[in-house]
Amino acid sequence: MTMTTPYPIAIAGASGRMGRMLIEAVLAADDCTLSAALDRPDSPALGQDAAAFAGRASGVTIGADVEAALRASRFLIDFTRPEGTLAHLQACVRHGVAMVIGTTGFDDAQKAAIEAAAQHIPIVLAPNMSVGVNVTLKLLELAAQALRDGYDIEIVEAHHRHKVDAPSGTALKMGEVIAAAQGRRLQDCAVYERVGHTGERPAGAIGFATVRGGDVVGDHTVMFLGSGERIEITHKSSSRATYAQGSLRAVRFLATRRAGLYDMFDVLGLR
Ligand SMILES: NC(=O)C1=CN([C@@H]2O[C@H](COP(=O)(O)OP(=O)(O)OC[C@H]3O[C@@H](n4cnc5c(N)ncnc54)[C@H](OP(=O)(O)O)[C@@H]3O)[C@@H](O)[C@H]2O)C=CC1
Ligand SMILES: O=C(O)C1=N[C@H](C(=O)O)C[C@H](O)C1
């Protein structure tokens, strides 16, 4: 019987909704080990055991020393905020640590910084790590090609009251996938707001609508609205565990990859 060394994984945003889900997933996976848990220097979680929220002891204390965390790690999974991810990115390049980035809400300059870092380390960047959402993106590619003419496209997403970015990274990715499948660019056709006397809907627009409230984990619906019929493609998340499991699949994928920027289509073989 051959024994392999488990992947040493640091989790950033350890006390966040996704951070906790990821810590549980890493502790439950035979091929992974929790090497470090990071939070902000002013976080009340510092000094606690990383699994204390679940009434368990992991033996890993939540800290704010990024350099020490990365010295002990081969991978960093980061679901924080764009500024946090960007700071961690530079540290990962210095330490040669591979990254799985789930954070959303990056601007163009921040995306360019991630692309530049991927020349030095392997990175999986995806606004949604769930298998179901990524299969939905493939369905949207097909639908967008077949429903190119005569169908108006609207994307509606709903999330919990704590979400800070809109539209969701997933909704934006859906828009990008649809636009690309139709030979267009999202920035040329996206409509993010409608208020007052808007006039008639411009042909070819891709509209976005955002709902925020309660504890909704993440719902996305794309409508293709024609004359006499409409097609709706919906994905609903009922647990954040799917994002955590997808992130561990991304770690396993990165373990055999050189520097480069990858996404969940690469991880799941959907390209
Ligand atoms: N790709 C995917 O599949 C998914 C992506 N997401 C995305 O992941 C991100 C996190 O979501 P969620 O877990 O719900 O958010 P939370 O607010 O629950 O958690 C964020 C964590 O990151 C920490 N943090 C915030 N700012 C910084 C910073 N500048 N530097 C370091 N750490 C920081 C927070 O600390 P503190 O509490 O002290 O602020 C907290 O621990 C969001 O962008 C969300 O859209 C979410 C689910 C799935
Ligand atoms: O903030 C969240 O919760 C989620 N964020 C991601 C996004 O912005 O698409 C993924 C998922 O929808 C949950």
UniProtKB/TrEMBL annotation:
Family note: Belongs to the DapB family.
GO cellular component, one term: cytosol
One Gene Ontology term of the molecular function aspect: oxidoreductase activity, acting on CH or CH2 groups, NAD or NADP as acceptor
Protein name: 4-hydroxy-tetrahydrodipicolinate reductase
EC numbers for this chain: 1.17.1.8
Subunit structure: Homotetramer.
Record: residues binding (S)-2,3,4,5-tetrahydrodipicolinate: 160, 169-170
Pathway: Amino-acid biosynthesis; L-lysine biosynthesis via DAP pathway; (S)-tetrahydrodipicolinate from L-aspartate: step 4/4
Binding residues annotated for NAD(+), in chain numbering: 13-18, 39, 102-104, 126-129
InterPro entries xrefs: DapB_C, DapB_N, DapB_N_CS, DHDPR_bac, NAD(P)-bd_dom_sf
Localization in the cell: Cytoplasm
Dihydrodipicolinate reductase N-terminal domain boundaries: 8-129
Domain spans labelled Dihydrodipicolinate reductase C-terminal: 132-268
Keyword check for Cytoplasm: yes
Organism expressing this protein natively: Tepidimonas ignava
GO biological process: one example: lysine biosynthetic process via diaminopimelate
Keyword Secreted among record annotations: no
Catalytic residues as annotated in Swiss-Prot or TrEMBL: 159, 163
Residue numbers binding NADP(+): 40
This protein's UniProt keywords: Amino-acid biosynthesis, Cytoplasm, Diaminopimelate biosynthesis, Lysine biosynthesis, NAD, NADP, Oxidoreductase
Catalysed transformations (reactions): (S)-2,3,4,5-tetrahydrodipicolinate + NAD(+) + H2O = (2S,4S)-4-hydroxy-2,3,4,5-tetrahydrodipicolinate + NADH + H(+); (S)-2,3,4,5-tetrahydrodipicolinate + NADP(+) + H2O = (2S,4S)-4-hydroxy-2,3,4,5-tetrahydrodipicolinate + NADPH + H(+)
